[in-house]
Amino acid sequence: MASTRKTRGSELLPVVEAALAAHVPPGARLTLGYSGGVDSAAALDALARLAAPREYTLDCLHVHHGLSPNADRWAEFAQRTAAGYGIACRVRKVNPADYPGLGVEGAARAARYAAYAECDTDFIVLAHHRDDQAETLLLQLARGAGVQGLAAMPVLRPLEGARSQLLRPLLDVSRAAIAAYAAGRDLEWVEDESNLDRGYARNRLRHEVLPALQAINPAAVANIARAAAHLSDVAQLVDAWAGEDLMRVMREDAAVDLVALRALGEVRARYVLRAWLTARGLVPPSMAELSEVLRQLEDAREDAAPRGDFGEVELRRFRDGAYLVAKRPPPPRDYVAQWTGEPLWPLPELHGSLRFDVVRGAGIALRHLPSMTVRLRQGGERFRPGPGRPHRRLKHLLQESAIPPWRRERLPLLYVGSRLAAVPGIGIDPEFVAAEGESGWLPRWETQH
Q1: How far apart are the C-alpha atoms of 32 and 38, rounded to whole Å?
Q2: Any bridge partners for residue 166, and if so which?
Q3: For 282-289, which contacts have Cβ atoms below 8 Å and span 24 or more sequence positions?
Q4: Overall average pLDDT of the 226-234 stretch
Q5: Mean pLDDT, to the nearest integer, of 108-128?
Q6: Is 105 exposed, middle or buried (0-12, 13-18, 19+ CB in 10 A)?
């Protein structure tokens, strides 16, 4: 038995070293997410042994969730154990209750990753291993996840909301090999009593489902982890194809062309929507929900919001375009801003800037600019957008324009004194246009999408 343990445990250090050689440059700063359990204990030992030859610095972060009566003792153990290696270990207390609606495990994970994102380091190192990989795939299968949800955890990925990267050097190491390494090195670790609670889906899977699968095939865990890697390859291909499709259907006004999207067929269109949301930094919904979004885009009125909840963004349709629109409170109706002569005039309350291009014989004549202000629509305005054209209600001119309704409420109207002189995207009242040979400033409204 001792010989078997030694053989299994000997797998760990070369695997970790290979992962570090592939991803970690000399001089990098590594922070281990150190829980004190056997997995992170083995990771700490291996990383400490390799720090000098690989020329990186190492410290630890212990996240104190406060969910166990033993949490304080675990934090003390983590600091004491790290100090034995001459390594600093910070303790970060978090409150999973700050993440409602995710369940106990989900809230603890969200709190933990938020703590990781605050670290000033190059790499956050986690001790996820091959069995974790297999368990995650099976849990995602049970939830009906799509290809991206079934993809393997990567060895390296950017950490959301941080400049650091997430590194998992033990993904090719089994739980048995980690236990053998820890025993062979006479390591100490803590046991989290919640790991035995079969009320948690992952624990039930670990203690009941995986043993049953291994009874059918002893290599089941390794094979499932390998399948997750294959699915990761497929997910990368799907993402690449969806990215190419997205480029084909995107318009210059940051909208998705619904005619072009429809021509792709429902399956490709769903993945295009997913790629679009991901590119905006949003967490995409399930494939079933994306199908419903597509249906609503088809059925919605041109000024409707087919789906109103993508976090801080909502999906809107206008004519044959789909837009992702930031949710913002409406600007004050009595908004007024005085122009002070700058060619680029930021109007943060309207989430955009007015840019003035200098032209001759066109644009607003320079003599009018000192008394120019910006206001918003109040209703009932009339405007003459060019020579030979009649005064018309501004409401009708805007309805005929290509300006989406949600942008109209923030569209800056340029007044000279009490007269409406120009509406970006619509025109300039001829009374205020520069004469032939005279310099003028042509206004252009640049919005923040």
Answers
A1: 14
A2: 124, 157
A3: 282/310, 282/311, 282/313, 282/324, 283/311, 286/144, 286/145, 286/146, 287/146
A4: 92
A5: 93
A6: middle
Handedness of CA 110, 182, 196, 220 (dihedral sign): positive
Token pair recorded at residue 33: 């997410």
CA distances (Å), origin 151, targets 196, 233, 234, 289, 406:
27, 8, 8, 20, 38
pLDDT at 1: 30
Q: Which residues pair with 336 in a beta bridge?
A: 375
- Token code pair at residue 445: 């409204």
Task: State how beta strands 57-64 and 123-125 pair.
Answer: unpaired
**How many other C-beta atoms are found inside a 10 Å radius of the C-beta of residue 222?**
17
Long-range contacts of 50-53 (CB under 8 A, 24+ apart): 50/13, 50/16, 50/17, 50/20
pLDDT at 7: 43
For residue 371, the number of C-alpha atoms closer than 13 Å in the C-beta half-sphere is 10
Q: What is the rounded average pLDDT of the residues 219-247? A: 93
Report all structural domains of the chain as residue ranges with CATH numbers, in order of start.
2-228 (3.40.50.620), 250-326 (1.20.59.20), 336-447 (no CATH)
Q: What value does the mean pLDDT take over residues 78-88? A: 96
The per-residue pLDDT for 301 is 67
Confidence of residue 288 (pLDDT cuts 50, 70, 90): confident
Structure-block tokens of residue 268: 């490709």
Q: How confident is the model over 92-102, as a mean pLDDT?
A: 85
Contacts of 41 (CB under 8 A, 6+ apart): 81, 182, 187, 188, 189
Which residues in 11-22 are b (16+ Cβ under 10 Å) and which e?
bbbebbbebbee
What is the pairing mode between strands 57-64 and 29-33?
Answer: parallel
Predicted confidence (pLDDT) per residue in 372-401, tens digit: 899 999 988 999 988 888 889 999 999 888
- pTM check: above 0.90: no
Structure tokens at 421: 């002189």
Q: What is the DSSP pairing of strand 439-447 with strand 364-365?
A: antiparallel
Each residue of 88-103: b (16+ CB within 10 Å) or e?
A: ebbbbebebeebeeee
The pLDDT of residue 166 is above 90: yes
